[in-house]
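Chapter summary example.
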Amino acid sequence: MLVLILSAVVLLVIGGCVCVFWAARGDAPRWARSVARVTLLGSELAGSASRNAGSRRSGSGD
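The structure predicted for these 62 residues follows.
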């Protein structure tokens, strides 16, 4: 069951990356541009959460 869920997540991530690439080329339909926007937003949120978690861990030792 876990493998099935992880496979679905990987497929969604790959699909999002394809939409980002397609939208960057400039000839993507509206739905692909929307998926690309959501993918990039998710990437930004994940990156900021990762940076915040890292700064909390490194700042606690001082």
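To summarize the output: The chain has two helices and no strands.
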